[in-house]
Amino acid sequence: MESHSTATVVTFGEAMLRLAAPDHQRLEQAVSFDVTVGGAELNVAAGLSRLGLSTRWISRLPDSPLGRIIRNRAREFGVDVSFLSWDPSARAGLYFLEPGASPRASAVIYDRAGSAFSKLVPDEIDWNAALVDASAFHTSGITPALSDAAATAVRDALAAARAAGIPVSYDLNYRAKLWSEERSRAVQEPLMRNVDILITTEEDTRRVFGITGSDYRDVARKLVDRFGFKVVTITLRGDTSVLRNTWTAIAYADGIDYDDRSYDIEVVDRVGGGDAYASGFLYGWLTGETTGDVARGVRYGNAFSALQQTLPGDLAWVTLAEVEAQLSGAGLRIAR
Amino acid sequence: MESHSTATVVTFGEAMLRLAAPDHQRLEQAVSFDVTVGGAELNVAAGLSRLGLSTRWISRLPDSPLGRIIRNRAREFGVDVSFLSWDPSARAGLYFLEPGASPRASAVIYDRAGSAFSKLVPDEIDWNAALVDASAFHTSGITPALSDAAATAVRDALAAARAAGIPVSYDLNYRAKLWSEERSRAVQEPLMRNVDILITTEEDTRRVFGITGSDYRDVARKLVDRFGFKVVTITLRGDTSVLRNTWTAIAYADGIDYDDRSYDIEVVDRVGGGDAYASGFLYGWLTGETTGDVARGVRYGNAFSALQQTLPGDLAWVTLAEVEAQLSGAGLRIAR
Amino acid sequence: MESHSTATVVTFGEAMLRLAAPDHQRLEQAVSFDVTVGGAELNVAAGLSRLGLSTRWISRLPDSPLGRIIRNRAREFGVDVSFLSWDPSARAGLYFLEPGASPRASAVIYDRAGSAFSKLVPDEIDWNAALVDASAFHTSGITPALSDAAATAVRDALAAARAAGIPVSYDLNYRAKLWSEERSRAVQEPLMRNVDILITTEEDTRRVFGITGSDYRDVARKLVDRFGFKVVTITLRGDTSVLRNTWTAIAYADGIDYDDRSYDIEVVDRVGGGDAYASGFLYGWLTGETTGDVARGVRYGNAFSALQQTLPGDLAWVTLAEVEAQLSGAGLRIAR
Amino acid sequence: MESHSTATVVTFGEAMLRLAAPDHQRLEQAVSFDVTVGGAELNVAAGLSRLGLSTRWISRLPDSPLGRIIRNRAREFGVDVSFLSWDPSARAGLYFLEPGASPRASAVIYDRAGSAFSKLVPDEIDWNAALVDASAFHTSGITPALSDAAATAVRDALAAARAAGIPVSYDLNYRAKLWSEERSRAVQEPLMRNVDILITTEEDTRRVFGITGSDYRDVARKLVDRFGFKVVTITLRGDTSVLRNTWTAIAYADGIDYDDRSYDIEVVDRVGGGDAYASGFLYGWLTGETTGDVARGVRYGNAFSALQQTLPGDLAWVTLAEVEAQLSGAGLRIAR
Amino acid sequence: MESHSTATVVTFGEAMLRLAAPDHQRLEQAVSFDVTVGGAELNVAAGLSRLGLSTRWISRLPDSPLGRIIRNRAREFGVDVSFLSWDPSARAGLYFLEPGASPRASAVIYDRAGSAFSKLVPDEIDWNAALVDASAFHTSGITPALSDAAATAVRDALAAARAAGIPVSYDLNYRAKLWSEERSRAVQEPLMRNVDILITTEEDTRRVFGITGSDYRDVARKLVDRFGFKVVTITLRGDTSVLRNTWTAIAYADGIDYDDRSYDIEVVDRVGGGDAYASGFLYGWLTGETTGDVARGVRYGNAFSALQQTLPGDLAWVTLAEVEAQLSGAGLRIAR
Amino acid sequence: MESHSTATVVTFGEAMLRLAAPDHQRLEQAVSFDVTVGGAELNVAAGLSRLGLSTRWISRLPDSPLGRIIRNRAREFGVDVSFLSWDPSARAGLYFLEPGASPRASAVIYDRAGSAFSKLVPDEIDWNAALVDASAFHTSGITPALSDAAATAVRDALAAARAAGIPVSYDLNYRAKLWSEERSRAVQEPLMRNVDILITTEEDTRRVFGITGSDYRDVARKLVDRFGFKVVTITLRGDTSVLRNTWTAIAYADGIDYDDRSYDIEVVDRVGGGDAYASGFLYGWLTGETTGDVARGVRYGNAFSALQQTLPGDLAWVTLAEVEAQLSGAGLRIAR
After folding, report:
1. Residues E291-308: what's their mean pLDDT?
2. What residues does each domain of chain E span?
3. Alpha carbon distances (Å) from B143 to A87, A178, B171, B184, B315
4. pLDDT tens for each residue of D203-232
5. Are B24 and C312 within 8 A, CB to CB?
6. pTM, entire model
7. What is the topology classification, in CATH, of domain C40-60+122-327?
8. Considering CB atoms only, which of E25, E103, E176 is closest to F332?
9. Rg of the Cα trace of chain F?
């Protein structure tokens, strides 16, 4: 159960306290908020740790009970937090979540301005130390949106990883509430040359890079053509309703198209579904008979994500055995 | 955000404490009840206040913590409560709600006999004062069912409104647990001559007035023919299951039929859906380029109602901006 | 409301504390567990009591607050607990429940080893006394799986019932977490000769007796042919998804096939659905114009089970009036 | 554990749903109410059942989920409910509880007018049947306050008990919210001639009978002198603060004074403390070496009451073993 | 019950969402936060509204669900919110509360930097309009600590009130987490010349103005001597323990010393106790036979505060009748 | 904040799921249980980790969601779990907690028979590996009570630690529900020769070793005399009531007596108070200017324990800064 590989996946980004309205209430009517923790790159590290890999999360937190809640959750998932830096006075990033029901979509209110992470100091992180023993590095398009220093840190991290021969995974994760499409493109286009695996959606690709295509595969091919990624993988969520979704993903690598079955999901909480896919994809990609098994990555990513969306919270309380049971055709009957 | 119009929609009726079994439990197995507030005419006033209109609610409450809970909730929604009258000794009306799941329908137990409202004293309300500055008056078929004095008060209110040239809206709202079809008809038929806008369902129309038709439009036309309403609007709920409904409404006015798209609803709480429709309809009808925009009324009514049914409680924690986003084709994706 | 028949249905088996993760959480992430009580044969006794029959539950509990919780729940349902025996030191059986959502199935963790029931002492129960005034005896395939003494007690109970001319109902209820198919068959085959009514599923029949057939009816016929049951009834759950199921049952008796409508269920909690069917079947079978009305049994069983699955917990907080309303075509609309 | 004596203590009175504000909130600010069950005479029956006696509760309930909640709780405590009568249409009595903290006293709002119990029909209860096998009969001054028919039923019950030689216990329980001191006296004075054991407080004695004295003992003596009771027992609560009380009781019988140690109580919920005393007193009085052991009654009453006040709810989730441990000098240390 | 005076008490300051750890948990271990609303000047307005005065609260909120929660709560208490201004993009001020138990003191984490209030624009508020019909103006030392514009607004408000002859009440409320003692003094000393009533503690007086004295009265006299206040009132909390406090206050006006009884409080939530005192003091001071009854102010202030500290939340869910019952010697016994 | 020393304190023992009745309910009346984690030696490791030391916990858990909950909590506190061993089939140890209120003491029900820990296999743990880099080793008298293999493992661990020159701390922790005084003495006396620091109470010393004395100091001296401990420290809890305790400790080492101030505690949860003392003592003892500062150990132990008892759960959500603030005389006032 504790057979973590020795090599470590390193992720970099902010995690926040998540304050969610319970019991299908709207935020405005709630008298209590459920408190959990989330943030794209912590979600990915936590997911990889669940699947059995060694992980390290690079971030910055306030030295307060709220910062400690976030640190504690990372530790609870077995993520190495020894590279966290602590801010004595800044605030904790927060986000408020209001789960929806058709026809009302779920909604997020970010309250992360002025957070400890956003106050990252240039050159604060020694990337060579942070990437020691790394088997992969992962970050997302949220991180460079948070501050200039964060964008610079992402640039430096990618360069350091490339220099060290460490594969880089990047989830495009466009967040309109954080920056404009224009600025998002200007900052991220230069970063892409050091990215090996791009995880994205058709919509984010269009908004950030202005790339559209005749179908998903075409979009993936155009991304590879423009940026030279080793792998592009595109997640596909079908919104049957707010509480019923379909989920699958495709990938394109080395001129080959990959796809997988679609999952019907009774959505308990869709937040973190993309991050769970990233976790599962990286797990599958890293742990096949040879590193770089894209088909395995897509299958593990989809199963892990589908399971993660059936539980509350950003984080994936799922086991490798459960993922593999899905891949072997687990049914819907109660086991007893 | 606080651009309430100066004219005021006045509503009249009882509101109750609502005690609901939580977490899909049955009433009989619950060890706590969720406490909210509801009542058709308060629901309509609160809904109109959410949409930005000035509102006033005429009612009668016990001078007790329970009565104050009801008053507080009205105030929280911005409804003018200065015309409430307070009973020093009567009880608060209650209703117990048990949400269902197919094939078990939701159920309501009324416990409102002897309530402060039911003890309304004849001529207690000075309708000329209560209707000052009114842009419309709204009540429903529940109010005259509660006591003879309440029925008389409805009669007087309608007459006063008609005399003052204030448009009257009336939701037929037949409640079999309060009175028989026969008595309901005997009391309400005379009231109809002072009603401008009738809001009803096909079933209530049949039970109260014995009117049936080849289709919804035909029912609406017959109602106009018999009573001379300016507008008849009929709501149409499709019970795909207890927790999945479709919702739309049609209207008929000045010889013209109006209809609208149907909403697929993942029902969190269907109680108050009709009242939310009434709120939205009145809002649309009152605030178009010219007063009396029936098409706008139907569209705002449907969107407001569909959104209201996705949250717990009778009251519509929805904003005008959200309604208008629905009318502009808002999707089901999370916004972030 | 309290018109219990004088004859008593006696059931025999273990009941446990059930500890369930709330609010769609996984067990691993929960910080509180909902505490209820369940166990196949108590569930059946409680269901029969709800429907108006006199019931008695034979079991064994620890003399501790946890044992008393279980006893209290049985009493709350009106089940006679005067034949319980109390163990001064053994533990209470527990089971942990994790409700699922597609594609993640619900899961049960049994923690019942060493329970007071499993420490049943041979000959502890005086079956002639326990079966006094019995109109039927019911147990299930869970009971003999719990210990050798329990298996012996089942054997003795069935023999005593047969000797006294009391009809015996047996729910096959195969639990892979308790014993192997092989052992299950070896222990239970000899018991079957004293069983009158077998309640089972197609899957359990295959796993325990190795019997398969061209369809459900064929399986039922083969069971009757092999064991000489008076009635075989097979429940049929359709897993549209984890939270949407269809439910029906068929029966075969005296060469006649019986079937019934299918229910669409919005599943709040599927645990206990089979036991509710057993309760409803026995109620219908015992209370027709003449005892032994199989068609009535199937219809009451299906309606009772469909309603029970819409509420949390193993136990059926349902009334006879509600069952009969379903049989008369109750709709999905809220009653008020 | 189930060694109930064969003789049965019969009690008569109303029980209500109790709706309490949780977490030290005031009623007006609560958004949920904790739902339990309480009523003086049910509380006494439940307490006696906990202590091991056979009990029967005579009352009247609505045939509704709310009425069934009350019935279920009585059954859960092992109280015989076969003499309940069911009203098809009346409401359930309710009471709202707001726990206090110094200097704010706890408060109760009764909402019991029109309850099923208050609609008791004269001669509805066959007292000879209801008192079969009774070892004692208990009611309180709340019951005759509820309606004329209830007062008549108390009169008839006391006469029937006296005629049958069954000891009658009566808790004076004056409730100013139900009737005036004058009316309370007029109704109850004639009842007292058939009462054997009077349970009261100094304050209630003064308010109902106008009796005061130089000290508690003097009051008790005057009561015996005026009414000829066999036993008078007076409970003494010291309000150190709302959440810290002292508790003891004295008694006077056959010319002898009885007293007991005082208990320091960290009050979790004081409601039902007097009823718990009555239960414990009757238990001790009935189960000594000879019936009528007043000293034993006082000691069991005080210990049972002190323990009951440390848990939420009217009902006494306490065991005989725990009472006897208190009597043997149990300490405050955790047992493990 | 709704006999608000026509003159209006106007208050000015920020209110925040308050997120508190429930059930005596520490913030770091909580998985949900209780959501209420608080802020010194809203607390005072809400308190005065509870006591029957007309109130208006001047503030600035984000146009978001979180801002609306704060607005809603003010409205629920009957406070006029028509002078609120709305910020389309700023955040809501938050504060996190961790209730303590001896020897661990309660703790507050402010998270209000960047709030809508702190972004107040100079001259945004038309004080002549805001003070129309004002019978008094109240603010506290928290407001000028929030931003330069806020300090300027306080200065302008005090000048406008003085010019209009409106009495000004000022609670010194020193918050070390917001500013230094030095800066607090520099900003506030000039404000004091327009203050009529100063509400403070001995400690705040020392920290802000460097004034100490031989006893409380001496401190009050020195304040009057230095600043020329009409009234100085000093609250005195005795920390017997974290959960048991004593509370009283003294005042000095026109050369006369005032004091009052001390209250023993079982503290449910001490936050807002000082604001409740301010509300009660102003109520008493404004509503005596002649305005300016200091003795009445102190007595109403103490009773209102003592009651407010027995309930959760900053806001005073207390009625005038309850305050007056305390003043008449209400006991600790449950009323029923 | 993350300045853990490089040397590691190693602890050995079982941790359980703790299921506690919420809201002052008794176990028998609860419908949910609060789920946390506790066990003496995990509690000590977690406490030391909070204070900034590196820690490792040696234990054995079931490979199930319940086992993972325990592992997760250890990780959350930063405890190294790499030496846990996992049992594929055994159960998780549980304990049920019922918090008391005077005069009802709190109560614990152990349900740990058959747990994964109790099934420890002889020689399963490689103590030389487990103790690498250890600065101290800690276990308690609970561990050898759990099984013969556990007792053997304790013996081997102590011998290995002594051989490696690692200081050994041992908390006597007598649990009458686990073993008799006689067996406890027989097993533990031989262990004591390898113990350096004995943590105990006067009562446990008497029950296990039969040692009594004229006062606490005398008991401590006799323990040193008999067993040759370097340090004996005795904790002293004063049960003013169940919810108000005093707490202090004394120590004796090298012929010197040590004592400390007494803390008045408003007890939120007393479970784990002794373990918190052990954590604080070891922290103080290990981190003084020279290792072995007994006075510092006692002071840190008392302050840490006093704070831990003010929060729910076995584990000490307390920071070093808070402990040191207590040692510097922190008051009871809210900080803001």
Report:
1. 97
2. 40-60+122-327
3. 61, 50, 10, 11, 18
4. 999 999 999 999 999 999 999 999 999 999
5. yes
6. 0.97
7. UDP-N-acetylmuramoyl-L-alanine:D-glutamate ligase (3.40.1190)
8. E103
9. 19
